[in-house]
Amino acid sequence: MTKSLTIKQPDDWHLHLRDGDMLAAVLPDTAQHFGRAIIMPNLVPPVVSTADVLAYQKRIMAALPKGMNFTPLMTAYLTEATDAEDLAKGFQDGVITAVKLYPAGATTNSASGVRDVMAVQPVLEKMAEIGMPLLVHGEVTDSDIDIFDREAVFIDRVLDPLRQRLPQLKIVMEHITTSVAADYVQSGSENLGATITTHHLMINRNHILAGGIRPHYYCLPVAKREEHRLALRALATSGFSRVFLGTDSAPHPDRAKLMACGCAGIYTAPNTMSCLAHVFEEDGALDHLEAFTSINGPKFYGLPISDQTITLTKQDLPMAYPEMITAGDETVTVFDPGVDLFWRVDTLV
Ligand code: DOR
Ligand code: ZN
Q1: N or C: which end of the chain has fewer CB within 10 A?
Q2: Atom of ligand 1 nearest to the CA of 174
Q3: What number of H helices and E strands is found in the chain?
Q4: Are the C-beta atoms of 221 and 174 separated by less than 8 Å?
Q5: Which of 74, 55, 59, 75 lies closest to 27, judged by CA?
Q6: Alpha helices (H) along 177-287
């Protein structure tokens, strides 16, 4: 039985850090294990211009505790008023790594997102021309489409036509949740990738809804049926090169989760690597963990693989993760995977 595993330092290709007290509270949980992360721009107001990106990057670096090494890879939030030249300059200057497309109304702070994808066609053309990746929240928002079908319908109605119009555009399907998306990314070309979260490998919709409603398992895209979770697990643990970890760790104050209309988002940063080691071990795929967390992402983005390592060690006793963290006056509940976790993460200091 494998008791210890040393892998290249992981990166998180989809992360919410927020701002202010929340940023200060959550950043160390990511930076203790991850070397880099793609930082989501859905602040209020959103991070839309190169100037906004630079200012947010500065606030992140100012919140990083002394002695910790971490590189935020910044994204800009695509709107129908986005200035393509501004973002292109930000990309070419190395300030912006990618652009995020939220369909308007799809999720937290997406009101300024894109209503009609044709309205941003000139921006997407510019991005395709300069090799700037587009990160897609892949759900339609139509009220007549069942929430469990919104990812599959998005692929059919929006993503596939977009890829046919702009085959050279580099696209990441963010936080995929269905076998439809798992099949679609595998059938795609070299410039199509996908991220998978930790929680979508561990929970299905029963965890949210059976035996009482559990707001801390509610996120978007919402977890689907068990057959979809199994398809995601098969893909993540296969080592397939265009699929990589994007935790979508998305902290909300418990106050905002535990209400009649609670926010979407699961906070997984503290125990993500322990969870993933558990999942990959369970599926007999520990030898593919490094590809998923540390190799496939940088390769897709054309960035160097980390020259640091972390060591995962299986303990005899379960790890004791906190149930919650504090952020200013608020608490944030940490993801409960529903199983004991035995894998400890050690980083070099
Ligand atoms: O669950 C989610 N939370 N999904 C998203 O797409 C956004 C995120 C957030 O910002 O809270
Ligand atoms: Zn997200």
Answers
A1: N
A2: 6
A3: 13, 13
A4: no
A5: 59
A6: 179-187, 205-209, 226-238, 254-257, 272-282
The label of the residue with tokens 């057959």 reads: 227
Q: How far is the CA of 107 from the centre of ligand 1 (A)?
A: 6
Query: Nearest Cα to 159, choosing from 142, 144, 174, 179?
Result: 174
Give CA–CA dist 306/38, Å, rounded: 15
How crowded is residue 252: how many other Cβ atoms within 10 Å of its Cβ?
26
Q: Which of 11, 12, 52, 248 is catalytic?
A: 248
Query: C-alpha distances in angstroms, 339 versus 44, 222, 316, 335?
Result: 35, 21, 14, 11
C-alpha 108 to ligand 1 mean position (Å)? 5
Q: Which two tokens stand for residue 87?
A: 């973002």
User: Catalytic annotation on 248?
Assistant: yes
Please give the domain boundaries of the chain with CATH numbers for all domains: 10-307 (3.20.20.140)
Ligand 1 environment, Cβ below 6 A: 16, 42, 107-108, 137, 219-220, 248, 250, 264-265
What is the layout of strands, in order, in the sheet containing 4-8?
A: 4-8, 309-314, 343-347
DSSP-assigned letters across all residues of 174-209 = -S--SHHHHHHHHHS-TTEEEEE-SGGGT--HHHHH
Q: How many residues does the chain have?
A: 349
Element (H, E) at 100: strand 98-101
- Give pTM, 2 decimals: 0.98
Q: Which two tokens stand for residue 15?
A: 């992360």
pLDDT tens, 75-89? Answer: 999 999 999 999 999
State yes or no: pLDDT of 2 exceeds 80.
no
Burial classification of residue 159, based on how many CB atoms lie within 10 Å of its CB (0-12 exposed, 13-18 middle, 19 or more buried): buried
- 308-344: per-residue pLDDT in tens? 999 999 999 999 999 999 999 999 999 999 999 999 9
**What's the pLDDT tens digit per position in 30-84?**
999 999 999 999 999 999 999 999 999 999 999 999 999 999 999 999 999 999 9
Cα–Cα distance measured from residue 175 to residue 155, given in angstroms and rounded to the nearest whole number: 13
